[in-house]
Amino acid sequence: MSAFRYEAINATGKTLKGVLEADSARAGRSQLRTQGLTPLVVEPAASRAHGARGQRLALGRKLSQREQAILTRQLASLLIAGLPLDETLSVLSEQAERDYVRELMASIRAEVVGGHSFANALSQHPRDFPEIYRALVAAGEHTGKLGVVLSRLADYIEQSNALKQKILLAFTYPAVVTCIAFGIVTFLLSYVVPQVANVFVSTKQALPLLTVMMLALSGYVRHWWWATLIAVAIVVWLARRILEQPGPRLAFDRWALTAPLFGKLVRGYNTVRFASTLGILTAAGVPILRALQAAGETLSNRAMHENIDDAIVRVREGTSLSRALGNTRTFPPVLVHLIRSGEATGDVTTMLDRASDGESRELERRTMFLTSLLEPLLILAMGGVVLVIVLAVMMPIIELNNLVQ
């Protein structure tokens, strides 16, 4: 059976929308007629993602991070409570607030009822459920601990979302200050400086060098601002195209790991993702080589991903995981030491969770330190620029006042 989205009219002329399960669209229309409804549209639940109609509805045709976390948590709770998977998916479909989520759950349920595994059903929707998500679900099905794995996966998604939100909020204030400062400086150069310049021109007085430079900059801002925007757009486009190439992207990511201040943030963020994912995979019973490969896919830094590939080769040759990761000289020593302790005690999963929690707290601390350092620097920079503009305006006035006296 498959899931079909329908639109129908009841006896009072009211339009109803929903999702039903049927062997075909024709069978679905028959079901609606037996319920006293006149079918208008009966189409596969996933078909709205294609065609002209689907293009109009493309906005929002994807699970948000929040929705993914909520669905995963609900799935885990219902499965641990003993509810069968098909009934669990049916419950989630019925209580979904958004039409897309309702159709998505109904489509997955139809695949499961049709005999496919849960992971296989999720693979039909790669935009909503990435490869690492499906790998964890497959591991849970294989070990018979799907509910437990989904519970840990929900924890991971929630913690990851919370960490991203904290980092974004920490950098929001410096970003706002930068935008306001840029706007004030642009206003001074494009409006205030030209107004004062007219007074100086009428006096035919020789202007100080700082004032002449400021007037030239003001003229550029007023007449050539569009050229600056075009140049910035071209530079951004070229940078993105260059970084799409494997060689330049790898070189950039290697530099990012050693960049002052930001390098530790990049390293810490990727370490948290790697340790969390590897901990979930090992807890689900996934073989270490497959777990390392899947955890490496979560890394956004190509240089660290390359180091994981080297570690996989070393582990395959018989090297311990801690020694293989230590030889990469990329991950924090704390992670390597905790993994070594886990290998000695036979509980690597717990040590990976501790490493992830510790590195997450350290990442938050570094982020707060960086933003607390940026805020006064931005204010000082803004004050310095305004001071230069004020001096450029006041110096001719002071000289003119001296001549009058």
Automatic annotation (TrEMBL):
It is a multi-pass membrane protein. Keywords: Cell membrane, Membrane, Transmembrane, Transmembrane helix. The chain crosses the membrane at residues 167-193, 223-239, 373-398. It is found in: Cell membrane. Its main location: membrane. PANTHER family: GENERAL SECRETION PATHWAY PROTEIN, TYPE II SECRETION SYSTEM PROTEIN F-RELATED. Pfam families: T2SSF. InterPro entries: GspF/PilC (IPR003004), T2SS_GspF (IPR011850), T2SS_GspF_dom (IPR018076), T2SS_GspF_sf (IPR042094). This is Type II secretion system protein GspF. Coiled coil: none annotated. Belongs to the GSP F family. NCBIfam families: GspF (TIGR02120). The gene is gspF. Gene3D superfamilies: Type II secretion system (T2SS), domain F (1.20.81.30). The keyword Transport does not apply. The lineage of its organism: Bacteria, Pseudomonadati, Pseudomonadota, Betaproteobacteria, Burkholderiales. Residues 72-194, 274-396 form the Type II secretion system protein GspF domain.
